[in-house]
Write a structure and sequence with these properties.
Strand content: 5-15%
Radius of gyration: 25 Å
Strand order of the largest sheet: 1-2-3
Helix content: 40-55%
Distance between the termini: 59 Å
Structural class: mainly alpha
Number of helices: 5
Length: 158
């Protein structure tokens, strides 16, 4: 048995396959890294729940379409005037807009915490708290939509 297992003819020196986004793509459900693999028909990036992987195993996406979309987005960003301005040491207009929107979101989140503390101390009635919270939540949702538009993505998280 030892002779069979140590036979040099059995060894393969082939390097493992590497794909563009393996380990970089994140699962939308659990946030863990997704890795490329194949099913019976096509290559996919999947959140793996098998040994050695910490994912949930519930999400997968077809690899060629994802790689094309990401490559295109990166190339568009690399060709943008905003990136050229940043590389030249000038602040880009989009970056100042995004920064201002982040500051607005942070201020509204702080207001929500302050509102909760004030209600917790008994200085507000439930009706007053609901009215104030509703206004802040509406403003927060609007600002997050503006942030997503300024970033040019569908993601509105700060």
């Amino acid at each position: 048995m030892r002779a069979v297992l140590t036979d040099p003819a059995r060894r393969t020196t082939r390097t493992p396959r590497r794909y563009l986004l393996s380990g970089l793509v994140r699962c939308a459900v659990c946030g863990k890294a997704m890795y490329s693999g194949t099913d019976s028909r096509r290559r996919r990036y999947a959140c793996r729940a098998t040994q050695g992987f910490a994912g949930c195993g519930r999400v997968s996406i077809t690899a060629p379409q994802l790689e094309t979309a990401i490559s295109t987005a990166v190339l568009v960003r690399l060709d943008s005037p905003d990136l050229a301005a940043i590389l030249a040491g000038k602040p880009a207009e989009a970056d100042t807009t995004v920064t201002a929107l982040h500051e607005t979101i942070a201020a509204d989140l702080a207001r929500l915490e302050e509102l909760a503390a004030t209600w917790g101390e008994g200085d507000l009635t439930l009706a007053e708290w609901k009215a104030a919270k509703s206004r802040i939540d509406t403003r927060l949702a609007t600002t997050r939509r503006q942030l997503a538009a300024a970033r040019g993505t569908g993601t509105c998280y700060p």
